[in-house]
Amino acid sequence: MTQLVLDIAAIACLALGLFFMLVGAVGVVRLPDVYHRLHAASKCSTLGLLGLVLAAMLHVGTLTVITKSIAVIAFAFVAVPVGSHMLAKAAHRDKARPWKGTLSDELADCEDEGACNVS
Amino acid sequence: MTPDLAPILIAAADHGNSAAVEQAPSAAEPWLMLSVQVGVGLLVLSILLCLWRMIRGPHLADRVLAGDTMAMLVAGLVIVLAIKLDSALFYDAAIVVSVLGFASTVAFAQYIGARQKASDDPLTAELENQPGLIATPDELERRAGK
User: Fold this and answer.
1) Is B22 exposed, middle or buried (0-12, 13-18, 19+ CB in 10 A)?
2) Measuring CA to CA, which residue among B67, B39, B72 is closest to residue A75?
3) More reliable by pLDDT, B9 or A1
4) Does the CB of B70 have a partner CB in chain A at under 8 Å?
């Protein structure tokens, strides 16, 4: 009975994770510029990995798997945002041009980004 | 270590593997296996979409972010296979793949940020920015002056 409930929860988490992963990949293909694509890729792959890892944790459920799951989730939630932030900063420094509907670019005027008061 | 402790320690070390085998599969087990198979298909489809973006570009950062997303998708694929095979061993592969993806993203970000000569070249800048959707230099200047 307990295993039944856990498996149903695992199916729900798996579906949620797969949804986020697929939406992220579609966003990487469809969105118009580098910054939009980074937005889609980083958020969706983090949440998608969370869903898949939760599904595995609920289904297998041993101590080893739960520990490693927490390690994977903690690493992904720190590493993916940091990496995509670095990539966006590097693309901006490389003068990757934004989408033509972009409203403002606060880093556009400063040659030296350390001098700008924008985090 | 005293001899009579050894069987207890071995049983404790083996506990992680034997616990999953002892439990009887629940009624939802076939549905879970079905959704695992659907999930493998969807993840492979996502990897192919990211591969398209990696081939297409146009900016170098696009290729790098496609590679980063592909690393995360491969980690997810490994974890889905861990569900199917009921094993804890695959998690190490998932951790290694995600660490490698992060490291390569950071390295490429350093490279892209450092290569200022390439983006000042107008031909490279023209090649690496899609026509149509992307703002032209005139539009950028007009917006900056506004």
Assistant:
1) exposed
2) B72
3) A1
4) no
- Please say whether the dihedral angle defined by the alpha carbons of residues A85, A90, A92 and A96, taken in this order, is positive or negative: negative
CA distance B120 to B125: 7
When scoring B21, B91, B138 by the number of chain A Cβ atoms within 10 A, the one with the most, hence best to mutate, is: B91
Q: Which two tokens stand for residue A34?
A: 């580098």
User: Above 60 in pLDDT, residue B81?
Assistant: yes
For every residue of A83-107, DSSP letters joined together read HHHHHHHHHHHTTPPPBTT----TT
Total residue length of chain A: 119
**What number is the average pLDDT over the span B5-33?**
63
Nearest to A49 among B42, B76, B136 (CB): B76
| Residue-level pLDDT at B20 | 47
Range list of H helices, B23-59? 29-56
Nearest to A99 among B26, B45, B134 (CB): B134
ipTM metric: 0.88
The structural domains of chain B, with segments of one domain joined by +, span 28-119
Average pLDDT over residues B48-53: 94
A25-77: per-residue pLDDT in tens? 999 999 888 899 999 999 999 999 999 999 999 988 888 889 989 999 999 99
Given 3-state DSSP classes, what are the helix, strand and coil percentages for chain B, each rounded to the nearest 5?
Answer: 80, 0, 20
**Architecture of the domain spanning B28-119:** Orthogonal Bundle (1.10)
Look up residue B117 and give its amino acid: K
Q: Please, what sign has the CA dihedral across residues A5, A9, A14, A19?
A: positive
My answer on whether omega of the bond before A98 falls inside 30° of 0, hence cis, is: no
